[in-house]
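Same chain as my last thread, 489 residues:
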Amino acid sequence: MRWQHETEPQTTVQELMTDGPSPTEALPPPPSPRTARRRLAFVMLAGVLAIVGVLAAGYHVATRPVTLRIAVGPANSDDLKVVQALAQAFNNQPHGQVRLRPTQTDGALASAKLLGDGKADLAIIRGDLDVPKNALAVATLRKNVAVLWVPPAAKGKGKKAAPAITKITQLAGRRVGVVGRTEANVNLLKVILQQYGVDPAKVEIIQFPVTEAVEAIRNQKAEAYLAAGPVNSKITSDAIAASMRDGGTPKFLAIDSAEAIAQNHPAYEASEIPAGTFGGAPAKPEEEVKTISFSHHIVARKGVSESTIAVFTRQLFAIRQTLKNEYPLAAKIETPDTDKDATIPVHPGAAAFVDGEEKTFFERYSDFIWWGLMGLSAMGSAGAWFAGYLKKDERIASSSQRDRLLDMLAAARNCDSTEELDQMQLEADGILRHTLESFEHGAIEEGSLTAFNIALEQFHNAVADRKALLMSMPQNLQRASAQFRAAGA
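reply #2:
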């Protein structure tokens, strides 16, 4: 019986640990925190790059120059020359926010059509023509006056002179020459004739291109003439000079019903031609002449942003003074009519400039800045949550290893082998290393680390006490103790 008892297999520590894994049995290696750290670093780097990219893109969009297409014509006209000079000045500004790209057309009517079709952002149009529905006033480029005059009677023998024309009602049955090939000037003459009860069908209207007007007037192609342009227009002055003959002076026909015409046709205004406007001796005209006027407008397409037009208007009025010496018409540029009953409604951007209510950079983009800050805050919260989520595995592993350390603490107090105690200490060292790495990465808090240190200290004390006890006991007594506990189990 003694032989059988001595040959029975000794009960090991593994058999004593029925409630958990063996103290000498290593746990599966915990997941390395490097993987989570790399993922977190990647996410944070991607977030930073995204924020920098958004800020850079926003700054680029907000500060890059905007090129506006402006339709103007016809060729060789004063309007085209002024716009080309403006475009060059705009484009030469080192920090200008708006650039101009002129698009040449056949005239104001064609320019208005391009704007109406959305093929131009700006256009130079005549106020007495049909204004596109999507056109909003930005500035008045110039004001034009209608000039009606009759050349002095030709002197010659054997030639019966026609009755002198001294007023508009006497134009019936006469030939009237219109300077310029645009139909708008013919319509202007018809409006004047109708106001005075003259049937336009009874007037022979002849149009002369600007380049042929002087020669046609010298050759007496008509009995009266109409020109429309700025008060100091060289074209009108040359046409009047061409009609001078035999020392006589032309007769300027006053449009006394200018107020009535303006009342019936809002595109026109009552105006005057000052005495001596066209020079000479004697002065031409000798006294002030009543007439009607209309404007050439710079209009913008309704879809162009308020901030862009505000910047364009500011640059326009800053540049016009530098161009007035070379292009006197540039000095005639005026602010638009901001009244609610204006013939052409003003663009909000131009109105903001005129009224001194132009928005600053922060006022224009305050909503974007606010939403951007909200987005960054949300991104930060999401990043913090995601970082915590990535550390979830580390927290679970640390909690499991702490429980494992407590199990080894209980096992160490009953262990009968110093070899097994050494193995448990090695495992405890690994748990300590992993716990410190998790604390460094923020997976566990300082309070949890303190609790772990207490458990680790108790474990080391238990191992030291148990080793001291085993070293003081003889080997046969150790075996007996182990067999006794096995039998009791």
